[in-house]
Model the fold of this input.
Amino acid sequence: EETEDLIDHLMDCGKTVFEVSSSSPHVGQFKSITDLPYKSGNSDRPHLPNVEVLAFVAQQNTANSDLAEVLEDVFRLTTLRGIVLPHTSAALHDSTILNRCRNAGVAVHGADLLSEVEAGLGIPIAPLD
Done:
């Protein structure tokens, strides 16, 4: 339910939201990060905007090992500019993960999206590095 509240909040703030979950049966979601649109002007889904920010939202903390496993899929999103993790995520302090992201040109931020995103203002955060 917290995830649904966050999605509704981001959409109310004018953000386009794609949900990625292999376990939830919601219509319109993607089963994996590799299914997300990137360079959609050159794809079979030109009606979808490109992914610029990937926010990890989990009922439990995003484990470093879970994030490390998906980074290659994340970096495939050539239009990606940043990753937002829950502000309590241990991955925010993992130098290996942060260096991999920095080397790929992807900024990493920590935020409590539900309380920190405001319509018209975005996310008031600063890079961790």
Observations:
- The chain has four helices and three strands.
